[in-house]
Amino acid sequence: MQSMRLPSLNALRAFEAAARFGSLSQAAAELHVTHSAVSHQIKALEAELGVALFRRVGRGVEANAVGQQLEAALGDAFARIGRAVLQARRGDRAGILTVSVEPSFAVRWLVLRLGRFRAANPDIDLRLSATGDLADFVREDVDVAIRHGRGDWPGLAAERLMGAPMFPVCSPGLLANGPALRLPADLRHHTLLHEDGEDYWREWLAAAGAGEVEVGRGPRFDDGHLALAAAGAGQGVALSDDALAAAEIAAGRLMRLFATEIGTDKAYWLVYPPATASRPKVAAFRTWLLAEVAHDRAQRHLTG
């Protein structure tokens, strides 16, 4: 099949930059060409397509309906091209492995174990991107991600690492200073620390037979690491899971309260594009990570 003749790549780049900035001057600066060069490229593109792409707005420009549609398509296409070029330059060499991971899991689980990964894989230069945002494997320089969720990320491979049943924790100092925490109902005398909303606390209290405890009080944090930091500082009682709290509990900085725990519909997952699974650096990280999870599971079984 004969391929479609496309306009000049330079003209398409000039149009996309001008539409994105709403300015020919800013587009020229990004592309390192003159204002007149950008103007000429856009006029040539409009002539070739037989349609106007911009309208004047004050001293700037604004893509019209046709231009907006073309800009959206080109923005995605250029991002994909950039990603492909970057991957081609890096190839499958050991090199840099970038892992996107939620801050709480990074601080309280992953970072504590990275020494063993570096020792086993000295040729892989690991980069952690600690963020709560989902990784965009097309637009971002990310190889794999570790996420807390339901494992339903379309187009991506997701391997379950560990579940996340939740239980209350507090600092030993909070117990020492009182009031007493002998029964779940005693939580009514203490500050409850919330990650996001109140649903998990409400569910845990109901499971523990202490549904009368008021849950609509206490500070709220947008990250589990912050809630556990507040608990460790003696500011109240937080709900957490083994992945985030185990190290602090083992070190004696936190204590688990009561045997009751609640399961959730979320877990920790290793996420990556299926096409990258066979790359040596991705395979090495996956193998190491699954071994660490299996080791933790065995340790919990022995001590449980």
Mean pLDDT: 88
Report the CATH architecture of the largest domain.
3-Layer(aba) Sandwich
Count of helical stretches: 11
**Helical proportion?**
40-55%
User: Could you tell me how far the N terminus lies from the C terminus, measured between alpha carbons in angstroms?
Assistant: 65 Å
Give unreliable regions as ranges. Answer: none
- In total, the number of domains comes to 3
Globally, the shape reads elongated
Q: Report the order of strands and helices.
A: HHHEEHEHHEEEEHEHEHEHEEH
Classification by helices and strands: alpha/beta
Assembly level: single chain
* Strand composition percent: 15-25%
Largest sheet: 5 strands, mixed
CATH class of the largest domain: Alpha Beta
* Spatial order of the strands forming the largest sheet: 4-3-5-12-6
Determine the CATH topology of the largest domain: D-Maltodextrin-Binding Protein, domain 2
Total E-strand runs = 12
Q: Taking Cα atoms only, what radius of gyration do you get, to the nearest Å?
A: 26 Å
Based on the model shown, name its key terms:
single chain; 304 residues; alpha/beta; Arc Repressor Mutant, subunit A; D-Maltodextrin-Binding Protein, domain 2; 3 domains; 5-stranded mixed sheet
